[in-house]
Amino acid sequence: MAAVLTAYGRALASQFSARIMLLSLVPLLLSVALWGALLYTGLQPVIDWVQVLFTDYNVFGASAGMLGMLGLGMLKTVAVPLMAMLLLLPLMILTSLLFMGLAAMPAIGRHVGTRQFAGLEMKQGGSLLGSLGLSLGSVLLFVLLWILTLPLYVFPPLALAAQVALWGWLTARVMSYDALAAYASFDERRALMHRHRWPLLAIGMVSGAAGALPGIVWVGGALISVVLFPFLAMLSIWIYLVIFIFTGLWFQYYCLQALRELRTGNVGNVQSPRP
């Protein structure tokens, strides 16, 4: 736990430097270009599709009754756009995470490595293609698991716990690889991700919980006006990227410190964990 908190403090100190903040621009521009085009051409069809589903399966009546019991009857008029936002939100997060991993994590690795771990040998155990393959595979598995957890929204606290756990797993898996790709060998990376799986998952879950903030901004737009959706989407993506960059710094500091300790104590005696 001390190592996790130490890495957190270092990441927080680095987060607001001009160089690190500029790292959010490239993935932001990529995400805005992608989602600007998708929302412009596809937002209304998604809302229309959800409207048809609500009508065909009498979801309007069920949702109105449930919201009424919770004292939120005023939300029934925005139930359709709200559901559309909930469907789009995970896709926005996933694309932001992919762009961040490809465009920002290598720069974060260089920033942290040269400043704090200058003497650490770079063994290049990972690659851009490896990162892309791991990210895409993890995202596909995440989407499948996310779909399977949708019925849990009947009991919101359980759904929230499941979502935090899923985001924690995905974030830890993707960012741990990227944090160690340039510095650790294949065996070192496997060993570290196995030995430190619980601290890494904890960092991912805390970061996933922090990711609820831009979700509130995005979904909250449904309570104001559909016209604001594109602008709130852009704001949400940027907030996600800032959170992801901080998360990347947190993983980078933690993983490189763990790698240095591994080499100091077990140089030449690193084996892959048993499956």
From TrEMBL:
The lineage of its organism: Bacteria, Pseudomonadati, Pseudomonadota, Betaproteobacteria, Burkholderiales. This is EI24 domain-containing protein. It holds the Pfam family EI24. It is found in: Membrane. It is a multi-pass membrane protein. The chain crosses the membrane at residues 20-40, 52-75, 87-108, 128-154, 198-231, 237-256. It comes from the Bacteria. Keywords: Membrane, Transmembrane, Transmembrane helix.
